[in-house]
């Protein structure tokens, strides 16, 4: 037996030596990206080419989403989940393992979940209500037309009754009757942007049976899959018109203790007119939310875990409580969709972005996902990032970085670029593209500079993932108020993160107070009824979560409708002396039509307990309970604070134009402080004054990692030097040359965009500005930072033959190493522009590059893409250059 054991050990190590698979060490701190597969027309050569490029550029992983294909390549299309598709998927995993890249995949193609194997019985459904008025003794024959009625409610002068759908007819009494007929219909919605073989109906997200049938198609693939396949994904809920499932009435009665079918007259109204009618509607919405959780989201997460993978879910867009839905999966994912006009000098924003139609991204929306993660102990919070930041071919990295910083401030620590399209190496530029993206694939105009952004993200996310968020305050998210708002025929309340969020977030009491707290420097997490019920009060009159997070105060912003369970929980906490406080007013109404008189009385008694806990402004309360306030918020510096064993850690970003430099104080920095520039790696240790303030230089657009460290020994506060500016004045004419040598060199007296010359307005590529300049010997020590006025869009700086690196983000500046500058100097500024002018020229020449199926290619306003009418996009460098001493 011992000999056989030795043989087993020998064979084991032979297997390892022969290349047996071991877990791949992929990174979650590096950025990942949506990897669109047009037509699934991938080849082994193309897969290797793409993945090697992504790995070299500093990506941590890719998320596969098959979509519609490119015209002319039909013979290369692979049928989704067919044998050839599975073979290529297996090859992806092998190559990703070799390159230390992680792989996630959508559980389907395009979005939402659905496909060819979804039957009509498992597809998304809606109800339609028919109203008929019967004269005395008139008969009603079922079904109406060619559809079968699901439920019929009869309302008469002296009687109300429910008759079953299988009854063939009904005859009215002598006083007549009104008949309400609810008919089940399929929505008919097909998967959007589906790949070949993935076309079909969208599933019923309110039916566990539908999901169980749907998931079987993926079991053979997943059983054979291996590391580095990590997560299975569900995209944002974009199921249009779905408001019904066969279990609706049964579930409704279980949750609300009355029969919704007896209130079809309420659902038939174009507008709810009374509190009771709104309460019935709210009960209906709450039931849909519960079905989405118990019939889809929880089974989705549980099954994925059972299969050995991680669940990633975008809850937004659904008619459910987003906090609960985000919390139900391993990685809750939010999104940053569209352009935001950051108040940063020189920040480029696409003027064609329609903020009225699509909304402006809001950090409060991001915090719904991160709050859910903080309360439940999830390590990762992901975000679909830079979707529709601008039209294709226009977006610069200077536009991307503030978005990344905003996402970090919102609590995200696992960023996904949206996106990176698979494009075969043999397809000429612009290659294959997905319309709704900022392009992060090798065809992108900023590809050469992208590793710098990716490294920046890696540094930041390492800190953000390693430490738990340090929030002191909980703010109740009043979902019931949303469910009671503006109800009527066919209404649902999908909570998307675009323009719709004005109604349920921005223009609400919750939106006002959450922004107020943010602006005052308080770090807040949002909480739902369900997550609140899981809190554990401590003897110190704080709350602890199951994950160990601790909170000092609970604020309830002007909630109108509250459940009995939540009211009694608040009353219990108030009696225990817990700091529960109501803003503007106490709750006004019970939330459900189904409460008994006794339950309504209990609700009123609970409210009496809360009377002394109303405040008009919470600041005094927060000060009384010593809730941490960050004074840097007064200077419009954005932040997220984290806890670590060594003390507080911060990510801070200047996303406004109010602050540039000065004395600041961070509430939890009390001994020493260390500042790390995650863009350059430079570390500084400023001295804290007696009042705990320190000098901070943070220009608009810049960001820092800040750490609490032990007090510095023998530290002597130094005087803050005044800022010294030294103009960089050319001593020779400026020579502008183009590496491709297809354009003539230009000579200029001052820095100007090369697009000022009509001969270079169609050019996309690099141009190098070169000239000499002189410095006095006393100026050299003061010339520590190079500042460039305007760059379109990034530049590599070479000084006296030395490559000093790239400038690609705002502010446009670069630290000059000591010993580089002399009295006589030569500078080369190698600039790369965005590709807008090149695509403009192609469209003016009517070159056919937009040859995709389905939606083909659209612009930022979802109209057919046409760059031929674009104005010329400035390219190169313009304005003054100068040095500063800090």
TrEMBL record:
Superkingdom in the source lineage: Bacteria
Segment forming the signal sequence: 1-20
Pfam families the UniProt entry points to: Glyco_hydro_106
Keyword terms of this UniProt record: Hydrolase, Signal
GO molecular function, one term: hydrolase activity
InterPro entries: Galactose-bd-like_sf (IPR008979), Ulvan_degrading_GH (IPR053161)
Protein name per its UniProtKB record: Glycosyl hydrolase
Origin species: Aquirufa regiilacus
């Amino acid at each position: 037996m011992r000999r056989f054991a030795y043989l087993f050990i020998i064979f084991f190590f032979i297997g390892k030596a022969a290349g047996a698979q071991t877990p791949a060490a992929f990174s979650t701190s590096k950025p990942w990206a949506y990897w669109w597969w047009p037509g699934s027309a991938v080849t082994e050569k193309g897969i290797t080419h793409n993945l090697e490029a992504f790995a070299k550029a500093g990506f941590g992983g890719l998320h596969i989403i098959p979509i519609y294909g490119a015209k002319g390549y039909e013979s290369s299309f692979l049928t989704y989940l067919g044998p050839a598709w599975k073979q290529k998927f297996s090859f992806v995993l092998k190559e990703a393992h070799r390159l230390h890249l992680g792989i996630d995949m959508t559980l389907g193609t395009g979005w939402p979940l659905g496909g060819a194997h979804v039957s009509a019985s498992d597809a998304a459904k809606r109800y339609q209500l028919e109203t008929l008025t019967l004269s005395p003794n008139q008969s009603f024959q079922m079904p109406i037309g060619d559809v079968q009625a699901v439920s019929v409610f009869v309302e008469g002068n002296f009687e109300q009754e429910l008759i079953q759908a299988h009854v063939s007819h009904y005859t009215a009494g002598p006083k007549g009757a009104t008949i309400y007929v609810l008919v089940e219909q399929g929505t008919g919605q097909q998967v959007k942007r589906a790949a070949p073989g993935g076309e079909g109906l969208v599933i019923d997200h309110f039916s566990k049976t539908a999901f169980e049938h749907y998931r079987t198609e993926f079991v053979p693939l997943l059983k054979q899959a291996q590391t580095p396949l990590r997560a299975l994904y569900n995209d944002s809920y974009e199921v249009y018109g779905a408001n019904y499932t066969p279990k609706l009435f049964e579930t409704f009665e279980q949750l609300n203790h009355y029969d919704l079918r007896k209130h079809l007259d309420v659902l038939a109204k174009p507008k709810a007119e009374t509190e009771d009618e709104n309460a019935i509607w709210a009960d209906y919405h709450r039931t849909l939310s519960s079905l989405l959780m118990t019939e889809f989201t929880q089974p989705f997460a549980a099954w994925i875990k059972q299969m050995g993978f991680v669940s990633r879910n975008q809850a937004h867009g659904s008619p459910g409580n987003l906090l609960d839905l985000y919390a139900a999966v391993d990685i809750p994912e939010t999104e940053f969709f569209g352009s935001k006009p950051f108040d940063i000098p020189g920040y480029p924003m696409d003027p064609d972005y329609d903020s009225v139609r699509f909304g402006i991204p809001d950090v409060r929306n991001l915090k719904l996902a991160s709050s859910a993660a903080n309360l439940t102990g999830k390590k990762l919070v992901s975000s679909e990032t830079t979707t529709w930041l601008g039209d294709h071919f226009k977006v610069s990295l200077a536009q991307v970085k503030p978005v990344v910083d905003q996402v970090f401030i919102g609590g995200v620590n696992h960023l996904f670029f949206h996106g990176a399209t698979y494009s075969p190496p043999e397809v000429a530029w612009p290659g294959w593209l997905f319309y709704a993206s900022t392009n992060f694939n090798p065809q992108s105009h900023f590809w050469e500079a992208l590793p710098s952004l990716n490294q920046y993200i890696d540094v930041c996310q390492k800190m953000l993932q390693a430490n738990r968020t340090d929030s002191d305050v909980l703010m109740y998210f009043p979902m019931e108020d949303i469910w009671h708002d503006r109800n009527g025929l066919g209404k649902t309340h999908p909570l998307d993160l675009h323009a719709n969020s004005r109604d349920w977030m921005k223009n609400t009491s919750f939106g006002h107070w959450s922004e107020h707290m943010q602006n005052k420097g308080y770090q807040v997490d949002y909480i739902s009824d369900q997550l609140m019920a899981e809190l554990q009060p401590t003897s110190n009159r704080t709350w602890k979560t199951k994950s160990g997070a601790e909170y000092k105060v609970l604020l309830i912003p002007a909630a109108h409708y509250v459940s009995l369970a939540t009211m009694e929980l608040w009353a219990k906490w108030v009696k225990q002396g817990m700091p529960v406080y109501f803003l503007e007013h106490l709750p006004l109404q019970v939330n459900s039509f189904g409460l008994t008189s006794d339950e309504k009385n209990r609700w009123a008694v609970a409210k009496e307990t809360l009377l002394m806990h109303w405040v008009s402004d919470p600041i005094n309360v927060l000060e009384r309970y010593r809730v941490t306030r960050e004074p840097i918020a007064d200077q419009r510096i954005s932040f997220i604070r984290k806890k670590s064993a060594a003390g507080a850690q911060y990510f801070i970003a200047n996303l406004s134009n109010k602050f540039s430099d000065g004395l600041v104080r961070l509430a939890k920095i009390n001994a020493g402080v260390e500042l790390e520039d995650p863009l350059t790696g430079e570390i500084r240790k400023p001295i804290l004054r007696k009042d705990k303030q320190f000098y901070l230089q943070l220009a608009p657009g810049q960001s820092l990692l800040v750490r609490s460290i032990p007090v510095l020994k023998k530290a002597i506060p130094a005087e803050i030097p005044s800022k010294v500016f030294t103009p960089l004045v050319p001593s020779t004419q400026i020579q502008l040359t183009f590496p491709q040598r297809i354009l003539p060199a230009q000579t200029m007296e001052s820095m100007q965009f090369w697009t000022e010359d009509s001969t270079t307005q169609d050019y996309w590529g690099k141009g190098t500005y070169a000239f000499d300049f002189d410095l006095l010997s006393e100026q050299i020590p003061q010339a520590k930072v190079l500042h460039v006025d305007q760059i379109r869009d990034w530049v590599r700086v070479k000084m006296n033959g030395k490559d000093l690196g790239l400038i690609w983000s705002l502010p446009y500046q670069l630290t000059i190493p000591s010993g580089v500058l002399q009295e006589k100097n030569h500078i080369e500024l190698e600039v790369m522009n965005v590709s807008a002018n090149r695509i403009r020229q192609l469209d003016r020449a009517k070159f056919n590059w937009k040859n995709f199926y389905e939606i083909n290619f659209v612009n930022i306003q979802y109209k057919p893409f046409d760059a031929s009418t674009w104005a010329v996009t400035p390219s190169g460098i313009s304005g003054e250059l100068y040095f500063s001493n800090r």
